[in-house]
Amino acid sequence: MNPPTLWPVIVLLVAVAASATFAQEKQTSDADDTSTETVSKVEQEPAKSYDEMGFEELDALVKQLAAKLKDQESLGSGGAITEERIEEQQKANELREQLFKANMALRKKGAEIRQVEREKWLGHLNELTTRLDDMKRERFTILEKFYEASKAKYDAGRVGIDVALAAEIELADAEFELHGRDAYKTRMIRLREWQEEIEAGEANERRQEDYLKVKSQFLKTYIEYLKGTEESYREILKRYP
């Protein structure tokens, strides 16, 4: 009996099926490799850019990368040089690069936050300084008018020297608040002129007492001025030990 003619057909079908199975398995294997590579890439690279991440996110990322790098370095260290060890070291180098970039981004973000905070507080300071200066000028203007009125009354004999001098002392205080040590010079000129006016008037015991009271304030101011100058000189001399 002759062999059945279907045998070659069966052999051909089996071969085709085996080839198709192998191709499908290879395609599945390639897909798994691609998926693994994609997952690995996703794990290594953040979903956001560094510029989009906040300070806390960057800080957490830096700590995470540092921990991964520590683990990775332990895998790639020690033993003979093998292909696997070289791959582990390459992964460690990639992590170092990512950690460096993340650290730089974290520093940049921190600097930006500090600059914003500094500008905010600088704005508060400028606002406060402006308000203080306005109040100092207003106080000085009020006391200057009060002093002029008190001195006019003293010149007219309506009030004593103590009233007029008290007004002048208040003015000097406001003047110092506004102009600092330069106010000493202005006050010394004002008191010197006042002394000269008293000297030019009618000489009597009361006028002599008034003159001494004004001169006492003049000397007090002069002493304060010289003390400040002395301190400045001492600071200069510290540069030349």
From TrEMBL:
Keywords linked to the UniProt accession: Signal
Signal sequence coordinates: 1-23
Positions of the UniProt region annotated as Disordered: 24-47
Superkingdom to which the source organism belongs: Bacteria
Entry protein name: Uncharacterized protein
